[in-house]
Design a protein that fits this description.
2 helices; 269 residues; 11 strands; mainly beta
């Protein structure tokens, strides 16, 4: 019921801005928005069940668009409540609370000889940072999950007007990390049965694992549709989807997906 009301409110916001057109020129842009993420995660270090649920997301992007490239900085925080997916359906008498924070800084260089501002393609890379925490209800192998990853990724952007319109423009993004520093401790707490040592900076960096695609795989895809409202502002409809998989630690793999629909304002600075 709560998820349905959230989607209804989001659609109402979209309808209010349905009379508008697009910014497709060079410049510096700031986007601030909110969204509704839907998470699905199965982490065998904590539970044999897959958990699924929705939550709330706040995001912001800074973009500097030039003829020869795009500098992009994005930041988001989100929280969600997840329930176990069990067949036949039954009450697990508890929910998993998820918190997630992500930061990305990247540069994408323009490719191709087309001088038009209505159709541009870019390739480049980004530095990514993610902190993900889940609190599981009992019974479980352990109640707290922590994932920290810092990665270097390659990616591409495609910016083009929609059906040749001067009122709408779509930006499609895809990123894939190639080298990742991963911190994912297996057990960080069911007290008093488990002794949990304090983790200082030295221990944290000592336990970071440098891995490649075979140990940490995360593909992130995003589509932004901008519709101009003023000479200095567009309304942005944003959809983001990602798939994360890691077999670490051994015998306790984790797979997670998240799709988020969002709405925000993109302003020309």
């Amino acid at each position: 019921m709560k998820t349905g009301l959230s989607f209804f409110a989001l659609l109402c916001c979209l309808n209010l801005s349905a009379q508008e057109n697009i910014l497709n020129t060079n410049g510096k842009y700031l986007t601030i928005g909110v969204g509704i993420p839907i998470h699905t995660v199965r982490d065998q270090a904590h539970s044999p069940f897959a958990y699924r649920g929705s939550g709330f997301r706040v995001f912001t992007n800074f973009e500097e668009v030039k003829d020869n490239g795009v500098f992009r900085l994005s930041f988001s925080i989100e929280s969600a409540t997840l329930k176990a997916k069990i067949k036949p359906r039954q009450d697990t008498k508890g929910a998993t609370e998820l918190n997630n924070m992500e930061l990305s800084v990247g540069y994408y260089a323009r490719v191709g000889d087309d001088a038009s501002s209505d159709n541009r393609q870019y390739v480049g890379g980004a530095y990514n940072l993610q902190f993900n925490n889940r609190s599981y209800p009992l019974p479980t192998n352990n109640t707290q999950s922590l994932l920290f990853q810092s990665s270097l990724s390659v990616g591409a952007l495609d910016r083009r007007s929609i059906d040749g319109s001067d009122r709408w423009m779509a930006t499609t993004r895809i990123d894939l990390p190639l080298l990742t520093a991963l911190y994912r401790p297996t057990y960080i707490g069911i007290g008093p049965f488990l002794h949990i040592p304090k983790v200082g900076g030295k221990e944290f960096f000592k336990n970071l694992e440098i891995v490649t695609l075979n140990k940490f795989f995360k593909i992130a895809v995003g589509v932004d549709a901008d519709h101009q409202a003023r000479d200095w502002r567009t309304d942005r409809i944003a959809y983001d989807w990602s798939l994360l998989y890691t077999p670490l630690p051994k015998t306790k793999p984790m797979i997670a997906t998240v799709g988020s629909l969002g709405y925000g304002f993109r302003v020309l600075l």
